[in-house]
Design goal:
By secondary structure, the chain is of the alpha/beta class. Helices cover 46% and strands 12% of the residues. Strands 2, 3, 4, 6 and 7 form a five-stranded parallel β-sheet that branches. Strand 2 (47-53), helix 2 (60-70) and strand 3 (75-78) form a beta-alpha-beta unit. The radius of gyration is 19 Å and the shape is globular. Mean pLDDT is 91; it is low at 11-20.
């Protein structure tokens, strides 16, 4: 009986370790089991990348206008289904000099999915991105930052970089003022900032773009795309 209880306890501990470890891996912004993951670039140079997730939606023209006023580039992590529905907006983002990244086709959680599903989600979005005329590197960002083994393994096999973030001003903040304050407070050289600006709920984030840029410019920061942040030898935007 004691041996049975001891064995059951050991099995329970093992299950808990697997569950807790899996939860950590699934949600980690700084680690994955295979391939390259970047949440921030280690540099002393005052460079920062602004990333905008989802869409493009009907708010894309407004976002492009705000980026133009701010005088900064951004990396748009887009969904293939939204690009397919609004190809003109994808082309407009590219014409304005911004970068497109892959955020899957259907914005689904990429956990406990088959290799076929991963390939379809990533490659379908790549195709829509290329259809816009964008010819640069395509980095990848998992929706909700969810991943376990199948997705990172696919990305590693295809020499793709997973890009997360180290600055998320929307976490716990809802007003434009609080978003701006949080972003400016959290940014360090090499930071990657995440904002969601494509939907109605993103009004405060959209309004934060120009003041974030202004305050960070005043501190000597230069905004670059993610690809430029990963490879500082690229020709940088002003």
């Amino acid at each position: 009986m004691r041996k049975w209880v001891a064995g059951a306890a050991t099995a329970l501990v093992a299950v808990l370790v697997v569950v807790v470890g899996g939860y950590f891996l699934m949600n980690s912004r700084t680690y994955q089991l295979a391939g390259r993951l970047v949440d921030r670039v280690d540099t002393d140079e005052k460079m920062v990348a602004l990333t905008l997730d989802d869409g493009p939606s009907e708010h894309a023209p407004e976002v492009l206008g705000l980026l133009a006023i701010a005088g900064i580039p951004a990396t748009f992590y887009v969904n293939g289904r939204d690009l397919a529905a609004r190809p003109d907006l994808g082309r407009a983002i590219v014409r304005a000099g911004h970068e497109l990244g892959n955020h899957t086709y259907n914005h689904r959680r990429m956990v406990l999915v088959s290799s076929e599903t991963v390939a379809a989600e990533v490659e379908g979005t790549d195709s829509e991105i290329r259809a816009t005329g964008y010819r640069g590197d395509i980095t990848f960002r998992p929706p909700y930052c969810k991943k376990l083994w199948t997705l990172p393994n696919y990305l590693a096999d295809h020499d793709r970089t997973t890009v997360t973030w180290d600055v998320e001003p929307e976490d716990g903040n809802t007003s434009t003022e609080s978003l701006v304050a949080a972003a400016v407070d959290q940014v360090r050289p090499g930071s990657i900032v995440l904002l969601h600006t494509m939907y109605e709920s993103g009004a405060a984030a959209r309004a934060a773009i120009v003041p974030i840029a202004a305050k960070l410019h005043a501190q000597g920061y230069r905004f670059v795309t993610v690809s430029e942040l990963l490879d500082p030898d690229r020709s940088a935007h002003p």
